[in-house]
Amino acid sequence: MDLNDYRKEIDSIDDQLIALFAQRMETTEKIAEYKKANGLRVLDARREKEKMREILDKTPDDLREYVSSLYSLIFELSRSRQSCLLGTKGDLPAKIAEAIEKTPQLFPEDAAVACQGVEGAYSEQACERLFKRPSTFFFSSFEAVFSAIEKGLCRYGVLPLENSTAGSVNAVYDLMMQHNFCIVRSVRIKVDHNLLANPGAKLENIREIYSHEQAISQCAHFLQGLPNVKVIRCENTAVAARMVAESGRDDVAALSSRACRELYGLDCLAASVQDQGNNFTRFICIAKNLEIYPGADRTSLMMVLPHHPGSLYKVLSRFNALGVNMNKLESRPMPDRNFEFMFYFDLETSVYAPQFTQLMGELPELCEEFTYLGSYSEVV
Questions:
Q1: Whether residue 283 lies in the annotated active site
Q2: Fewer beta carbons below 10 Å: N end or C end of the chain?
Q3: Mean pLDDT value across residues 309-335
Q4: pTM to 2 decimal places
């Protein structure tokens, strides 16, 4: 036999598999009807365990891992199909539908917005990209921004979530587990770090450089070329620029934005010193209440999954079964639980798609804790 003969054999086997899979799903539909008539839940964990054990007992040892993965997916598909037929959606889809109906058609042009830092911060640039006329209020910490939203001091807050080169802003992810909020929009801001100093300062005389830890990380190669300079971390790149301006010294500098150069009357000793030119920071816009504006095609979730093998796989299988693309998966340790994690997901799917509604109805049953953070669009 040659390769074409083997391929024909595979084609014949696939035809049989498709027919048998269709037959299996038809039987699944009958089971769903029976469960509906008798008030039974979709998930029967005991039955699934017994069924998997029976299947693996019949499977050659060298194929057990493959068969286990195959049937785990088949079980997920069967449950998804049953849930769809039974209409077991829970409260979340109704909550999302209500938010879509009540949210205005246009994103507000002006609003009271909280962000961390001082005037000139990249967060302020994000505010100005999101709103035409923002009334920006600056707070000293990320936690203070969350608190301002929860207490109603500002309608919206803008926070950095991740950078294309330095990675996630872990402090924000950790705070997301502690506070109640909804994401209503996101935006990507190009980051351009410049070495700023007081007028008359010279690069060779600089002995201290101030900046935020992520900016320092993003300019690592440049800073390595200044071996005699002490790098000092502070809470924000704009704060760093203000500190330099207020110091009056000619031996200190800040890694900050071009906007801070003009704002604080500084000179640029070196422009665009970040390691990579294609450097973006993603900011999220948060609110106290759920708002879903037209065009929402990204959804963020947080989940605590059962602490046993296969928990995350079941969630990912559900995404795959419904054709939902995942843009981001982030895990953060939970402070009060040993070796347990909160998983953060960004999904790419239209909020109007039936697959999205089905997914929002099914996911909570797979989790110990489930938080829907919102559906929104991203400004680029």
A1: yes
A2: N
A3: 86
A4: 0.81
